[in-house]
Amino acid sequence: MPDAPLLHYSTSTAPLQAGTPDKPAANTIDITVSSPAGQKIYCSKIDVAVPISAPDDAGAYFTEPPQSSITGKWSPASAQMKTGQELGLEPATNYYHVVFQAPPIPGFDLIDTPLKISITGNVAATPGSELTCPVTETSGTTSGKYTRKTPQELTWDTAQPVFYLHNFLAGAPDRPTVPRTKFNAGDEVYLTWESNGSEFQLYDGDGTTLYEGPATSYTIPRDKILNDTTFTLQASMTSEAQQSTGFHPVYQYATITITINNPTLSQMTVTNGTRTPWIQGAVDGKKSRVTFSEAGVEILDNTGAWGALQADKADLNGVNTEWVQGKNAYDGRITFPTEGLNVRRAGGGDWGTVFADKADLNGVNTEWVQGKNTDDGRITFPTEGLNVRRAGGQDWGTVFADKADLNGVKTTWVQGRSTDDGWIGFYSEGLHVYQGQGNHNWGTVQADKADLNTLKVKYL
Questions:
Q1: What are phi and psi of 315, to 5 degrees?
Q2: Nearby residues of 200 by Cβ (< 8 Å), 6 or more positions away
Q3: Following CA atoms 451, 454, 456, 457 in sequence, which dihedral angle do they give, to the nearest 10 degrees?
Q4: CB proximity list for 400: less than 8 A, separation 6 or greater
């Protein structure tokens, strides 16, 4: 009959979370091993058998091989899955057999400071049941002289698991293990989370439900996310006992914000300005672009050629352009050659007409000027000077003015404004003064003085 254990064992007192086989709960069990006060105990090996299948008594168990560690100079020597029959325990239960050994160094087998063993993994249990782990030591009171002692069963209570929701992450479907929050517009986004909830509901930024069900992951379809969006995940938990008593579910919430590198926005208001090299349309295939260069703003069409600007008004300090035309194809066009300004009729090179109320110009180069009506007079500009013609022909016209300040006047005759006024004719031999009414009767010269070199008269 093996001897009783020499070492003292204490365990963590907090109840373990009782997960279910399909949703086990993460747990850690701690075992502290120490020598009784005033005694020197030597130990070469400690075996811990952790159940990894459901025991016959419906107790708790780990759903997969757990991770183990020990503090101090010891370390796990080996770990194997064994049946209860192999270990002399419950035959129907499988165990994860962890063996901790003291290093083969003199003095290291003395348990003079406590050893702390930690075993971590996922546990399934009926709430209120126990997790039982048999522990067997190989020890003695003298270094190098050890015997295997009677197994000691260490137990941990279990309780209803704490409802949790965490690790709400996003990634690309082809790289689901790489967390990221920046995507391009229209990309698929793979969302995952960890929870022991029974039901989940995923909402987009507008509160629309994207997913509802028990799964802990969801892929947002292509072309669904076009701008920055915050997704909200609601997890609910209702146990079978709660459902039978009509108990309302408990909720947990988590959020994640996805940033879009090239968002599509319905409207944007910017108060402190926007910095961007270009702006491009994205609606109904209209991809014209506005770029911002050192010289100013460039407008390009869908092919990359110069585009058109349509607006109600343009208030500009200057415009550099080859031509200006009205909105319709049959409107006139103004071109800007080196010499100045050309006004053309629509669809050709014929000269067009300028209509204006006034013209304040430094100079005008033109063959002729005429009033707005076809029966108005016309002024032509021959090499010799200025011709004033009557409308529709070559007859001399009349100049009406208040005064004329001229260096010289060339004319056949001069007459007062009325046809009754006298008139002066200019002949090769000199000056003739005639009476009015268009006749050639000599007229009278009236003056205060006459200063002449020669005077020829018929009589005085």
A1: -105, 105
A2: 193, 211, 212, 213, 214, 215, 216, 233, 234, 235, 236
A3: 20
A4: none
Q: Can you tell me the distance from the alpha carbon of 68 to that of 31, in angstroms, rounded to the nearest whole number? A: 11
* CA-based radius of gyration for the chain: 55
For 333, phi then psi, to 5°, come to: -135, 145
Q: Are 266 and 205 in contact (CB under 8 A)?
A: no
| Cα–Cα distance, 342 to 351 (Å, whole number) | 8
Tell me what pLDDT residue 245 has: 46
What's the pLDDT score for residue 184? 96
Q: What distance in Å separates the CA atoms of residue 379 and residue 399, rounded to the nearest whole number?
A: 10
Two tokens at 84?
A: 């209860």
CATH architecture assignment, domain 165-260: Sandwich (2.60)
Q: What number is the average pLDDT over the span 152-166? A: 92
Give the class (CATH, top level) of 8-159: mainly beta
How large is the average pLDDT for residues 214-236? 96
Using alpha carbons only, give the angle 376, 378, 380 rounded to the nearest 5 degrees: 175
Q: Give the angle subtended at the CA of 152 by the CAs of 145 and 66, to the nearest 5°.
A: 100
